Amino acid sequence: MQDNVLGSYRQSIDNIDAALVFMLAERFKITQAVGRYKAEHGLPPADPAREDEQIARLRTLARDADLDPDFSEKFLRFIIDEVIRHHEKVRG
């Protein structure tokens, strides 16, 4: 038999995981549009200056939220790398 408190925690985690999936899906829909725009206008798939700005911003947000900034950077880097891969695919 499952403890009610643990079950409540797990339900909250499940809800957050679902929200994360939908947020990532929405983010990728937008970045796919960005990739098409870049391809149509001859822009490079990657923008290292923008990436650095985003990582610095996310690290600050992570610190403010009491989240490990290194973890948040790894998470964003993973997403950025996937976005760039999609942009290169659209371009090529």
Distance between the termini: 54 Å
Helix share, percent: over 70%
Oligomeric grouping of the chains: single chain
Taking the sheet with the most strands, its summary is: none
How big is the Rg? 17 Å
The count of strands amounts to 0
How do you describe this structure in short?
The protein has helices spanning 4-40, 48-64, 69-91.
Explain what you see.
The protein is mainly alpha-helical. The protein has helices at residues 4-40, 48-64, 69-91. Helix 1 runs parallel beside helix 3 (69-91) and helix 2 (48-64) packs antiparallel against helix 3 (69-91). It is elongated and about 55 Å long. The N and C termini lie far apart (54 Å). The model has no long low-confidence stretch (mean pLDDT 95).
Secondary structure blueprint with pairings:
Blueprint: H1 4-40, H2 48-64, H3 69-91
Helix pairs in contact: 1-3, 2-3
